[in-house]
Write a structure and sequence with these properties.
Distance between the termini of chain A: 34 Å
Largest interface: A-B, 32 and 26 residues
Helix content of chain B: under 10%
Distance between the termini of chain B: 41 Å
Shape of chain B: globular
Oligomer: heterodimer
Order of helices and strands of chain A: EEEEEEEEEEE
Number of helices of chain A: 0
Strand content of chain A: over 45%
Number of strands of chain B: 11
Structural class of chain A: mainly beta
Order of helices and strands of chain B: EEEEEEEEEEE
Number of strands of chain A: 11
Radius of gyration of chain A: 14 Å
Largest sheet of chain B: 6 strands, mixed
Strand content of chain B: over 45%
């Protein structure tokens, strides 16, 4: 299997539930990302992992907890979410370059989250 | 702070027309610029990546140009087809931003009428 795969594709949860989103990349990249996409808003970067080390946390509420056990896997643990957290959550990966930038970004199909 | 603007926000044209989508950015110190398409409810699919040293990239009916000094990129779609209907996004990788130095535009929602 190639590319970036996300599971589950759809998730419905109550505000008191605990669930996790999973992402796996088969591209040998050294950086992985979580983005949030809400209706009529630009993509919002949530977390970045570079060689398993978190390098970015854009003021994301603590009810979202990322985990990166290795360079191929990324999780987003969800706990006591709010209805406004309903959105499409996208995982991506890329290869960071020696010059400091990032190469081509590859996205998964996304996990559509609905919080009741 | 890098800002990326895409114009128009929405576009509807008959099948067969050639069309141009625009992306502008405020900070010209970039590593690269990438164009994506997104179908409803799906992830983003990478179309073209232009490095800062390049002027254009081509893939099939798509041609992307980059004018770094003026902070502009265009995506040209030749002989448009209904299957091209999607939202097109550009993303700019700004120098000094590292792995999180990607800034996305809000996208252009494109409809190709059969």
């Amino acid at each position: 299997e190639t590319g970036v795969t996300q599971t589950p594709r759809h998730l419905v949860m109550g505000m008191t539930n605990k669930k996790s989103l999973k992402c796996e990349q088969h591209l040998g990249h050294n950086a992985m990302y979580w983005y949030k996409q809400s209706a009529k808003k630009p993509l919002e970067l949530m977390f970045v992992y570079n060689f398993k080390e978190q390098t970015e946390n854009n003021s994301v509420p603590s009810r979202f907890s990322p985990e990166c056990p290795n360079s191929s896997h990324l999780f987003l643990h969800l706990h006591t979410l709010q209805p406004e957290d309903s959105a499409l959550y996208l995982c991506a990966s890329s290869q960071l370059t020696s010059g400091g930038g990032t190469g081509e970004l590859f996205f998964g199909e996304g996990s559509r989250l609905t919080v009741l | 702070k890098q800002e990326v603007t895409q114009i128009p926000a929405a576009l509807s044209v008959p099948e067969g027309e050639n069309l141009v989508l625009n992306c502008s950015f405020t900070d010209s110190a970039i590593y690269n610029l990438q164009w994506f398409r997104q179908d409803p409810g799906k992830g983003l699919t990478s179309l073209l990546l232009i490095q800062s040293s390049q002027r254009e990239q081509t893939s099939g009916r798509l041609n992307a140009s980059l004018d770094k000094s003026s902070g502009r990129s265009t995506l040209y779609i030749a002989a448009s087809q209904p299957g091209d209907s999607a939202t097109y996004l550009c993303a700019v990788n700004t120098v000094g931003g590292g792995a999180d130095g990607l800034t996305f535009g809000k996208g252009t929602h494109l409809i190709i009428q059969p």
